[in-house]
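Case study 2.
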Amino acid sequence: MNYPVSAISHSGLGSSVYATLREALITGRFQPDTRLRIRELASQLGTSVTPVRDAILQLAKEQALEMRTPKDIRVPRLNAEQYEEIRTLRLQLEGLGAHTAATRITPYQLQQLRQNIDLNHEAIAAEQLNDALRLNSEFHLLVASSAAMPLLAGMIDTLWMRTGPLIAQAYGHFSLRMAIEHHEELYQALRDHNSEAARSAIQRDILDGSQKMVAFLDATG
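Prediction:
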């Protein structure tokens, strides 16, 4: 199998393998139920088996991967109940992150968010679904990091590893333009340092389309 990952540098090898697989999960480059074979991944990444195995064990511990057996490692396929639990956690944690970021965000971080939104508009206009999907996840993680609460950002990051593959699978079924509107609202709230408006905007973004997501899960489950 040819996995959607590229060869990596050999400096900081273990952390690089973990970061590469983590990013592939968050951005939805791995589809739900994809089986990951350690030797094939190691060959494609240009590494030995050991750092790939270590990264997979760490991701399994974080519930971002599912180890059915030592040789059957898969990207989890979430059911509606699991999705709703993660959505509930995201509402609270990302809401707190946005609320806090409104008082802590720096001009440079605001510039990063503005650039992300502009690039996402371009990706949507060009119907570049993969780019729009990547920019969407990056936007949420940028907001989380702007709160300057590393533990909170780590929790949000883990939730995105769990939902990234599902969001990618379902993304084409929803209105991308509607999603980017909430990003505009959130950017405005952060620029105005309005904590309550920022929390509301990101929670609307998460809730928007959630019923369609559950319907998608029911239809494909």
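The CA atoms of residues 64 and 176 lie 25 Å apart.
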